[in-house]
Structure prediction request, 78 residues.
Amino acid sequence: MDPLDTGALVGWKITDLGQRMVLRLQTMHREEDEEKHLRERAVLLDRNQAVLLANYLYEVTGQSKPQRRSLLQSLFGK
Prediction:
């Protein structure tokens, strides 16, 4: 395997383990023979790491975090 294993992110799934979670990343890779191969890698994160990753992704994409709706907003559709 190359030192930098590159591929396109095509899917992910989180398994909640309480204070930790497993993030499974699926990536598509093109080999030298032009065949495409799907790979899956599991990464163990604690909740703080997950929050830091989420905040970083919001920041680099220029997106804003979803705003929490109050109980009244939820009830009255605002």
